[in-house]
Amino acid sequence: MAQIVLHDVVKKYGTFQVVHEVNLNIADGEFVVLVGPSGCGKSTTLRMIAGLESISAGTLRIGNKVVNDVPPKDRDIAMVFQNYALYQHMTVFDNLAFGLRNRKVPEMEIRSEVTRATQMLGLEPLLARKPFQLSGGQQQRVALGRCIVRRPQVFLFDEPLSNLDAKLRAQMRIEIKALRERVPTTSVYVTHDQVEAMTLGDRVVVMKDGWIQQIGTPLEVYNRPANRFVASFIGAPAMNFMEVELVEEHGVVSAQAKDFKVELPDEQAAVLRKHSAKTVTLGIRPEQIRLGMPSGNTGSSFSGVVTVTEQLGSELVIALNVADSTIMASRISPETGVSPHARVQMWVDGKALQFFDHENGKAITCAPCTLR
Ligand SMILES: Nc1ncnc2c1ncn2[C@@H]1O[C@H](COP(=O)(O)OP(=O)(O)O)[C@@H](O)[C@H]1O
Ligand SMILES: [Mg+2]
């Protein structure tokens, strides 16, 4: 295993800079996920780590050695791609053995390494088949197996599950997670899917337009998003945003918009008081909105008109019009009978509210860190 350190790493194509000063320390054995929308520079960053793209500026270290100019084959990494990249004319066994044969490993040793990988991945019954005789999930498992047999210092994954259907993706996520326990290896995993990022990563790196937006554990990026972009990218349904004015009356700070007013708990008010009389962006996660009135003095209620309901069986998701904004509320009990056009009362715990600078989108508070 090895640590990976990126220091001010930049990628330019001609004058077009697609990755900006990336600074990232990946610990030995850590599993880090790069996540962000299509085109934000995830693959480019990963390919620079792999050595498949040159580095325009900055330094890249793998295991304390600067590898900027080290060719991919000498970096001791294994990479899994979205399109599996299996040799179509070879059997599963030969695909798994290919890298080792190339390195002139004795056939006995190859056999034992391939057996180890096939047992881990449940590939034993498929060893004599060729890739076209396998399902997408099985092909991806062979691609993973090919990495395992090499026992590299580093695993790199580029959207390995994107070609699979939703059910298989969920299953393969579990397999990759289980594999981590059995073969602990420093890993960098690229995906546009925030669920994969949250479920697989020890830490998550959220990227946008070639810039790192935030680095944190899954819970940190969920609970304390650094800015509005991270807040909307992580979590589903996405966080609701509303422009509100902060008003201080008799020492109580509230966030107000037309037909909307929620009082802030003291710890929020302490930070937000200095923004009084200013417009800020309020963020509320759909899953933190409850229907009805708060019990005791623990939350703030507001009302809205239901526009759409989505019955998912396990939960009801409601779209509401609140102060001329559409607000989504999820995890409503599926038995709740609300229908479009009804005016309903909702509430939210003031500690769950997040605030962002109206102009630059930066988080003003990180109050939910106190939520349990
Ligand atoms: N060879 C290239 N020449 C010019 N621009 C490129 C090249 N490869 C990628 N890009 C651009 O770099 C940006 C980042 O691409 P990429 O890293 O593939 O994004 P992601 O993997 O996050 O979807 C995109 O705007 C893409 O168009
Ligand atoms: Mg990509």
Q: Mind explaining what this structure looks like?
A:
With 372 residues, the protein is an alpha+beta fold. The protein has two domains: 4-226, Rossmann fold (3-Layer(aba) Sandwich); 240-370, OB fold (Dihydrolipoamide Acetyltransferase, E2P). The protein has helices spanning 42-50, 92-102, 107-121, 136-150, 166-182, 194-200, 218-223, 228-233, 266-272, and strands at residues 4-13, 16-26, 31-35, 57-62, 65-66, 77-80, 154-158, 186-191, 203-208, 211-216, 240-249, 252-257, 260-263, 279-284, 289-291, 299-311, 316-322, 325-332, 343-349, 354-357. The strands form four sheets. Strands 6-7-8-3-9-10 form a six-stranded mixed beta sheet, sandwiched between helices. Strand 12 (252-257) and strand 13 form a beta hairpin. Helix 2 (92-102) crosses helix 3 and helix 2 (92-102) runs parallel beside helix 4 (136-150). The relative contact order is 0.11. The model is unreliable at 367-372 (pLDDT under 50). The site of magnesium ion has 2 residues, from helix 1. Adenosine-5'-diphosphate binds at residues 13, 18, 36, 38-44.
